[in-house]
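tokens incoming
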């Protein structure tokens, strides 16, 4: 078990540790997120290391009522046609994020957030970041999403596991199927860093699985 070293690790870090042989064979690990200690498992698919991260039990924090203000904060009130958010809820599986459903992939791509306006709405809703998404026109079990987090100065993130987990729970909740369901979130397309995050949703757990690609390396001399 990694203790202090496991805090706040991203799936990319876990994958790098696995590929460089620093985790050992048959070991078990945990990741600390807030007060939660959550299990991590390392596997292989097509010769590449994959990482599966469990998340905390989902909590529905609340609904966002002022969709017109949210449309303005996302820059969607000026689009043609200006369709805007269809619903917005705040869900946490360790970190609370605002999940905003839009009508199409085109509408998701149109979003151009005003950071100061969005920050105010996130603070009012008790959310850290904003995950705009759509399932309309996508493959079955797939969502298309973008993530913005002005609370920590992130203009856009290409892959956000802490938001994908809550989204998977929301999609499962909306389907009404019950039992175990699997979803994939496609993110980072417009940034040229397309990611695919698999989400396994069970009645008692949410688990993410994915891999990573090494894009740069370097050395730090002290």
């Amino acid at each position: 078990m990694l203790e202090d070293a496991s805090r706040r690790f991203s799936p990319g870090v876990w994958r790098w540790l696995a590929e460089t042989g620093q985790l050992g064979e048959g070991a078990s690990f945990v990741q600390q997120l807030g007060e939660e200690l959550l299990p991590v498992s390392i596997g292989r698919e097509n010769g590449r290391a994959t990482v599966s991260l469990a998340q905390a039990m989902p909590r529905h924090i609340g609904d966002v009522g002022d969709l017109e203000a949210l449309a303005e904060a996302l820059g969607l009130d000026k689009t043609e046609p200006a369709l805007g958010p269809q619903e917005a809820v705040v869900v946490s599986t360790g970190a609370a994020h605002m999940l905003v459903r839009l009508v199409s992939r085109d509408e998701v791509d149109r979003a151009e957030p005003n950071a100061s306006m969005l920050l105010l709405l996130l603070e009012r809703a008790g959310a850290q970041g904003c995950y705009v998404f759509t399932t309309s026109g996508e493959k079955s079990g797939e969502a298309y999403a973008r993530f913005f987090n002005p609370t920590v100065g992130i203009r856009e993130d290409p892959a956000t596991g802490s938001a994908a987990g809550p989204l998977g729970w929301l999609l499962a909740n909306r389907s009404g199927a019950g039992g175990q369901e699997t979803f994939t979130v496609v993110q980072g397309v417009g940034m040229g860093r397309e990611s695919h995050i698999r989400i396994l949703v069970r009645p008692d757990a949410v688990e993410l699985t994915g891999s990573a690609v090494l894009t740069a390396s370097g050395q730090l001399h002290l």
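note: The two ends are 28 Å apart (CA to CA).
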